[in-house]
Amino acid sequence: MTILRAVLILLLFVNHTNAGNSNSTKSIEVGNPRLYLQLSDGTTTRETSIIYFGGSTEGLDPGYDAGAYQDGEPSFALYTRLPCDTEGIDFALNVLPLGYDQSIVVPVSVFANAGKTLTFSTRTNSDLPVNQNYYIEDRQNNTYNKISGGSTYATTTASRINGIGRFFLHTAKIVWLGNTSDWNVASNWSTNTIPSLTDNLLITNAGVNPTATGSIEINNVTIASGASLTVNSNLTINGILTINSDPYVSASLIVKGNATGTITYKRDVSYEKTRTAEANGWHLFGAPVIGESIQDIITNGNLASNNDGTLKGLASYNNLNTPTSLSWLYKTSSSVGALNSGQGYSVKRNKPCYIAITGTLKTDDLTSYPITEGSRNSWNLMANPYPSFINANLTTNSFLSLNSDQLDASANAIYIWDSNTDDGEGAYKVINYLSPNYYLNPGQGFFVLSKNGGGLISITESLQTHKPETTFSKSNKTYSEIKLFVSNAKSKEETTVKYAKINVSEGLDIGYDAKQFSLSEKDFSIATHLVKNSKGVNFMLQALPKDKIETTIVPISLQASTGETIIFEASTKEFPEKLNVFLEDKLKNIFTILNKENASYAVLLEETQNGIGRFYMHISSKNVLNTKATVAQNKSIYVVNHNTLRVTGIHNKNVKIQIFDMLGKSVLNESYNTKKTILDVSLNQINKGVYLVDVITEQGKIQKKIIVN
User: Fold this and answer.
1) What beta strand segments (E) does 199-320 contain?
2) pLDDT at 251
């Protein structure tokens, strides 16, 4: 008996004993269907098993599921993961609900060295139905392969495999093969017959995805993650149409006619790591169907709760600021109503798995969806209302092109949560015209910033699409990118500048520059201000003309506290090798190159930083810069809060401010002696109107037109 087999038996014995049922070992081992999944590398065969048992779940069933014994990383091994994965544990025994639900997909964990020919097969006990078929999905080769009834699947590894992500186990009786796209061609189905009204079907993304040119009527159908179904006419569902998603990819459905019947979208909500434990596991989502109730999500979604259980892990966002209002409005066990089409929500389960969202298909446009200018802020949480992808940022026929005039000019973009950014801790990511082509997943939540006074959003059926086959879509925009990072003892923040060949300017470029995303004030952050015509807005993405890369000086906006040691770093992409990225610390008259290996600039802050004025970014082919040529360009003049004139980039103790109306009459003439790099001047005594401002220092005079509201 091998050590692994002995440990497995011991685990089973201990688990069942701890479950308080002395007969549980017998009850689960005898009389229950069992599948043995096998993998051979030509010399050794590994085996893992699945038992179908009434009352078990897709998640962890203590006393039944048995974790695999691993002493380090094995050279060759085969395990499974729970369909609702728990902390990345490999299992030697996986107990699943009785019923052979074809919407349940089992991740297969494989460890094998490069150059090995791996062969999958199965064996069963006598309790497993003889007509039950099993398929192994190989996502690297984009194939579904039958491995039951004597069939096997072999593939050769080009590199080492370590765990899950490539292979998945499916159960089904009739499977889409995808020789052509035509639904009504018999050779496209595993039975070599066109499905009947009572057949249960699994639609895979093997070969070509199916299209029904006419109306179709179906029973129970599962669209596997990564697969799609297009119906060019009407769809009638007599059973349930299930649309799967997983941590890697989602399925997609487009119906161009009418649809009747029930649809369930299984929205993956795998665990996501964030900076704080309180934020872990939260996802932004919405209903890609019509009619799903809040009560159903609360009752069946296994949602997280607060300590006393009164608040559930389902919340809508509120941008109003009143003495009794909160920014996140959490649902309770007594909450009622439906998930609104187009509205986004934040959701968190007790354990990572999926949220089943059930209803009917939306087959019309979402029009006049209101977004508001709130008293807290003007951010609004929305969601894709369709069970298909939608184009987010194409310059024509996309969410942005359709709704540009309803969004704030400085934030003509969508903001999504990306768990893969910020060293795996996650951060909000901006999607606009300068981003690679992006497609919103079915039910994916996202934030937008309303224009002044609010707006009305449209998401039309014409935006629907099935995501292109390529996993990573390349941008059709040509630009050089700089990411500027700042870190303290607690966190690391970033801002991005892209120098583009397309027609962008040093001022505001609607749809290309993107305001910094923040639902509340942050005590540590980095952003940039516009090089020209700044209004004091912090940008997380700024687009600048590539032909002016060496003449533009970018103001860096920093929020940080006194006494902090902060570190600046930079990364570049498609950046000319001959150019250097300099960070200027105006207070200390220091220029530091940041785009060299291991380059950084660290400084202890002796005063709180709250905006621009001290730090600037320069691009130059020179290896050394000095302050003489840059002083005049570093100053910015703008109005904040309607009644304050702000002058940044001051480098002198003596500053003179003169303000004239449009008739040339002086309305303010003051001199200031300051050591700060930012000077705020009150405009409370000045009437509304247009004025000219002169800022006079030892380096000369700068003039700017302002508007006082």
Assistant:
1) 201-203, 211-212, 216-218, 221-223, 228-231, 235-243, 252-255, 259-269, 283-285, 314-317
2) 96
pLDDT confidence band for 709 (50 / 70 / 90):
confident
Contact, 252 vs 165, CB < 8 A? no
Quick one: the chain helix, strand, coil %, rounded to 5?
A: 10, 45, 50
Q: Is 92 within 8 Å of 79 (Cβ atoms)? A: yes
Whether the Cβ atoms of residue 249 and residue 204 lie closer than 8 Å to each other = no
Return the HEC string of 600-628.
Answer: CEEEECCCCEEEEEEEEEEEECCCCCCCC
CB 415 within 8 A of CB 429: yes
Contact 430, 413 (CB under 8 A): yes
Name the β-bridge partners of 112.
Answer: 161
- Say which range, 295-299, 535-539, 594-598, 697-701, has the weakest mean pLDDT: 697-701
* Token pair of 471 as six digits: 């996993």
Q: How many Cβ atoms are within 10 Å of 124's Cβ, its own excluded? A: 18
Tell which residue, 385, 289, 288, 292, has the closest CA to residue 336: 292
How many other β-carbons are positioned within 10 Å of the β-carbon of residue 547?
Answer: 10
CA 542 to chain centre: 21
**Predicted pLDDT of residue 699:** 66
pTM: 0.85
Exposure on the CB side of residue 300, measured as CA atoms within 13 A: 12
Question: Exposed, middle or buried: residue 289 (CB in 10 Å: 0-12, 13-18, 19+)?
Answer: buried
DSSP assignment letter at 89:
-
Residue range 192-236, pLDDT digits in tens: 999 999 999 999 988 899 999 999 999 999 999 999 999 999 999
Taking residue 95's Cβ as centre, other Cβ atoms within 10 Å add up to 25
User: What local confidence, expressed as pLDDT, does residue 88 receive?
Assistant: 80
pLDDT in the model for residue 627: 60
Q: What is the pLDDT, as a whole number, of residue 129?
A: 83
Is residue 648 within 8 Å of residue 554, measured between CB atoms? no
Residue 638 in this model has a pLDDT that exceeds 60: yes
Q: Answer yes or no: is pLDDT of 105 > 90.
A: yes
Residue with tokens 């169907």: 289
First to last CA, the chain: 84
DSSP characters over 197-228: TT--EEE--SSSPPEESS-EEESSEEE-TT-E
Distance CA 377, CA 450 (A): 9
- Listing DSSP states for 548-598 in one string gives GTTT--EEEEEEE-TT-EEEEEEEEES--TT-EEEEEETTTTEEEE-SSTT
CB 189 within 8 A of CB 162: no
How far apart are the C-alpha atoms of 593 and 573, rounded to whole Å?
A: 16
Residue 298 has pLDDT above 70, yes or no: yes
Return the SS3 of 281: coil
**If you ran DSSP here, which 8-state letter would residue 157 be given?**
-
Give tens-digit pLDDT for 54-66: 889 898 888 899 9
* Residue 605 near residue 563, CB atoms below 8 Å: yes
At which residue do the structure tokens 């009437």 appear? 687
Compute the half-sphere exposure of residue 507: CA atoms within 13 Å on the CB side of its CA.
3
Q: Which of 197, 213, 308, 340 is nearest to 261 (CA)?
A: 197
Positive or negative torsion for Cα 98, 238, 244, 228: positive
Kindly report which listed range (4-18, 152-166, 237-251, 319-333) carries the lowest average pLDDT score: 4-18
Q: In the predicted model, what is the mean pLDDT of residues 501-517?
A: 95
- Which three-class secondary structure state does DSSP give residue 16? helix
92-96, 185-189, 246-250: which range is least confident on average? 246-250
Q: Write the secondary structure of 101-124 as one string of H (helix), E (strand) and C (coil).
A: CCCCCEEEEEEECCCCEEEEEEEE
Give the sheet arrangement for strand 389-391, strand by strand: 439-440, 389-391, 464-465
